[in-house]
Write a structure and sequence with these properties.
This protein has 135 residues and is an alpha+beta fold. It is built from 4 helices and 6 strands, in the order H-E-E-E-H-E-E-H-H-E. The chain has a 6-stranded antiparallel beta barrel.
């Protein structure tokens, strides 16, 4: 997975935040987290949805039975950074719950039907994380 992510990250940075292939035209950001256990910096490309308070990202892991590592990282260290286009912003992560989660998640599945497939492929509830500007 690291090599695959590294190629997407390099393409993202070389093309002002745009990538081709399966992510062509999709809103993609590079999420910078700090390892929950290691304390080391990590960068992961993730699809996002613009929401009123910032950006929503989805810990889908393509419908795997476990959450992605970046999700555990931001739970331990909610202050993150994201590269969006050619900019970089400081953000604070929080997990959406209740009506907010359902509203954002439903919109994501409608916009990108593959997320509905991920949901069908797992028994866990896929976390929706809202990234808001850091104070």
């Amino acid at each position: 997975m690291s090599d695959w992510n590294d190629k997407i990250i390099a393409e993202f940075r070389a093309n002002g935040g745009q990538v081709g292939g399966q992510f062509a035209g999709a809103p993609l950001l590079l999420l910078h987290t700090v390892g929950a256990k290691s304390g080391r910096p990590h960068v992961n490309p993730v699809m996002y949805q613009k929401v009123d308070s910032g950006y929503a990202v989805f810990a889908s892991k393509a419908g795997a039975p476990t959450n992605p590592d970046w999700y555990h990282n931001l739970l331990a260290h909610p202050r993150v950074e994201a590269e969006i286009g050619t900019g970089r912003v400081g953000l604070v992560a929080r997990v959406a719950v209740g009506e907010e989660r359902e509203r954002i998640w439903s919109a994501q599945k409608a916009a990108v039907p593959g997320f509905a497939d991920y949901e069908r492929n797992t028994t866990r509830q896929i976390p929706v994380v809202v990234l808001e500007p850091a104070p």
